[in-house]
Amino acid sequence: MGTALQRTIQQLRSEDREFFQIAISVDCVIFGFDKNELKVLLIKSDLEEFNNQWSLLGDLVRPDENLESASYRVLKDRTGLDDVYLEQVFTFGEVSRHPAGRVISTAYYSLINIKDHQPMLGDNELHWHPVNEINTLAFDHKTILDTCLQRLQSKIEEHPIVFNLLPEKFSLRELQNLYEAILGVKMDRRNFRKKFFLMNWLEDMNELEQDVPHRPGKLYRFNATRFSNGKKTQTPMPV
Amino acid sequence: MGTALQRTIQQLRSEDREFFQIAISVDCVIFGFDKNELKVLLIKSDLEEFNNQWSLLGDLVRPDENLESASYRVLKDRTGLDDVYLEQVFTFGEVSRHPAGRVISTAYYSLINIKDHQPMLGDNELHWHPVNEINTLAFDHKTILDTCLQRLQSKIEEHPIVFNLLPEKFSLRELQNLYEAILGVKMDRRNFRKKFFLMNWLEDMNELEQDVPHRPGKLYRFNATRFSNGKKTQTPMPV
DNA sequence: ATACCAATGTGTAACCTATACACAATTATA
DNA sequence: TATAATTGTGTATAGGTTACACATTGGTAT
């Protein structure tokens, strides 16, 4: 016997034409950080069913395009940015998730420095929304957003990826505000500083903040070399 | 304008027929535990390109079937088991990952009690393989296996799911052997016991192991109620 | 019956990490 | 020059993780 998977595509095309009735798309949760808020880039849906609702940025995957390449393409088209942090999170495949037909969608999130995003001409339907203020989205996009935010929250507990959301030089206060915005908690300033210095991820730029109405803080940048050297192999233990 | 995603499927069918040239499948990494080894259920590939190589169990997703339902169907067909632990891990979408055409595959892993698996008639091509002894698989299935194993390893550090791999009653030694097999490390027996008793997941059955050639250990079972009660909300902190 | 074997079952001290917490120093601004 | 706002810094406590050794139990062989 053998499953459908083990036959050739040629066989499938003749025998099982039904299998080619599913479209696959990518949806990108594009995170940014501005005014001490975590934000996400959304577009006005132009499907009638979701009139006036916002939705994530996505597109169908082309037959000759890798899944990840499709995400990068969406990002490039919508933000003009290459070389951004991108991570696959989950694939949403409910039969009825798209009102117009069967579309399975793989969700990615990406982290960009919001200042680098120059809205393209004709993209007046694109807007940054504070994540905290989003209650509903078109399709199942609220679920996708929540899933990606949870992944981001757990990811930053172990990996130095938040730097993608900041300019090259930043103060410790900005870094802490960012962690607090993503995790939704307040942290102790002294302990936060201690932890980061111990991890040895930061390089002191010997510069100070400009244009702040109080004593300026020192500026740092993320030093990836220190990170890869400083990784300690932790002994895995249950729970 | 608007992306392809925002048009209707009817429009897509006529305008963008190319988008329906991609098939979608699920592949299941079915883990079991036997003789102190973590094992995975594999099938002989019957594609010529992969003659005599083993592959994961998978199938194409049907147009009227949820993605997750497809995984449960594969599991039911191959193991006879319903109601198993199943978790989506990652979607593999390289253009050339399947030699016969464009197939995007979503990987799941599941945990079953290997003793419950009664091989079906006609399934003489199905075998349990020790995960440690698998070097190559058909397609990109070795990558899929590795990815699912990593997910399993990190998952069990925080969630009580390994019990799905054990019979209802088990000894602490069996439980520790299982953790050691999954994580690939040796652990201290005293600390292991201490930790599990502190977590309060285990219920003492007041029974002893049978047929062991030495002093028998006490038997326990997993108590999900205790788990959900005992969860403590941990303060999230960076790194 | 007895001796031996192989595993179970148990506690404590050292170490490390996480947390709570207060005051002096600096710069901008009025 | 005084005030306001924020930066920058250390220590003590608590909690969790790790390392580590010996008596007990039941099975097995003689």
From TrEMBL, chains A, B:
Residues 162-222 form the NrtR DNA-binding winged helix domain. It comes from the Bacteria. Residues 24-145 form the Nudix hydrolase domain. GO terms for molecular function: hydrolase activity. Keywords: Hydrolase. SUPFAM superfamilies: Nudix, Winged helix' DNA-binding domain. This is NUDIX hydrolase. It comes from Niastella soli.
